Automatic annotation (TrEMBL):
Sequence ranges of the Solcar repeats: 3-87, 102-206, 215-302
Name of the molecule in the record: Solute carrier family 25 member 48
Organism of origin: Loxodonta africana
One annotated GO molecular function: transmembrane transporter activity
TM annotation in the entry: 56-81
Homology family: Belongs to the mitochondrial carrier (TC 2.A.29) family.
Coiled coil: none
Subcellular compartments: Mitochondrion inner membrane
Gene name of this polypeptide: SLC25A48
Main localization category: mitochondrion
Length: 312
């Protein structure tokens, strides 16, 4: 059997859609906390989003684009990870004349490849999602001492939807503008996916009894949720930098790059700024990743006609 399998991409698409639906409200809160604007704790942020975002609808601001695109994004990430890991495992085992199995080195390299690919595809998706989420905050509240680029907007939303947002960014900043914050995203996602897939695989093996042919849906849900909490919790410092760089430019431009963002953020708010939203990240990471892995594994099981859940 060849190494490349399309089923992983299809299952990743289904899992990605499930994760967006489950995690977007907390993702909105996380983005607003990290981007700044005087919000210092989770409860005050939730109240602000609820008040200024037309009640509950504010938490789902910008979800249509992620729902359509992040499903594709996760399809590629899971497909690339699974096929890379499978290729490495089969190649190594052919050389050793052993049965295929995964090792830490296989999982590490496959996770890094998935992290690099995720930035190329997910950078513009994340940028547009964050720009739309940030519009519940008028520019005059975002930073009093900066002169806005869009004073003429009078506090009105800069973007009228995902397509208008993308067109506006390309028109004003060119195609490279869609990859604002890509360096920070790369520094977040490469180690982040290592701490996402590797804990999931090993937690699955640890939870599942040896007598079972494969992990149960409950084991997948628990291992996926724990892996997500670990990954998002440890990725928070660079996630803060990425969010600030991507939110920068809605009404004004403040940062020149990753190092400038780190320097300004530290100078203005201290070391604690890089851990802003860590609680939301970890809490949000559990249900999102649990839904992601469960959707992936169950759909993969249905596509292949298996009766047991298998590792990615």
């Amino acid at each position: 059997m060849g190494s490349f399998q399309l089923e992983d991409f299809a299952a990743g698409w289904i899992g990605g859609a499930a994760s967006v639906i489950v995690g977007h409200p907390l993702d909105t809160v996380k983005t607003r906390l990290q981007a700044g604007g005087g919000l210092w704790n989770t409860l005050s942020c939730i109240r602000m989003v609820y008040k200024k975002g037309r009640r509950v609808f504010g938490f789902f601001k910008g979800m249509s684009f992620p729902l359509a695109s992040i499903a594709v994004y996760n399809s590629v990430v899971f497909g690339v990870f699974s096929n890379t890991q499978r290729f490495l495992s089969q190649r190594r085992c052919r050389e050793l004349e052993a049965s295929p199995s995964h090792t830490l080195s296989d999982l590490l390299l496959a996770s890094m490849v998935a992290g690099v690919v995720s930035v190329g595809l997910g950078g513009p998706v994340d940028l547009i999602k964050i720009r739309l989420q940030m519009q519940t905050q008028p520019f005059r509240e975002a930073n009093q001492h900066l002169k806005p680029r869009a004073v003429a907007l009078g506090g009105q939303p800069a973007y009228h939807g995902p397509v208008h947002c993308m067109a506006t960014i390309v028109r004003s900043e060119g195609l490279p503008g869609l990859y604002r914050g890509a360096s920070a995203m790369l520094l977040r996602d490469v180690p982040g996916y290592c701490l996402y897939f590797i804990p999931y695989v090993f937690l699955n093996e640890w939870i599942t009894p040896e007598a079972c042919a494969g992990p149960s849906p409950c084991a997948v849900w628990l291992a996926g949720g724990m892996a997500g909490a670990i990954s998002w919790g440890t990725a928070t410092p660079m996630d803060v930098v990425k969010s600030r760089l991507q939110a920068d430019g809605v009404y004004f431009s403040k940062y020149k790059g990753v190092l400038d963002c780190i320097s300004q953020s530290y100078r203005e708010e201290g070391l604690k700024v890089f851990f802003r939203g860590i609680t939301v990240n970890a809490v949000r990471g559990f249900p999102m990743s649990a839904a992601m892995f469960l959707g992936y594994e169950l759909s993969l099981q249905a596509i292949r006609g298996d009766h047991t859940v298998t590792d990615p």
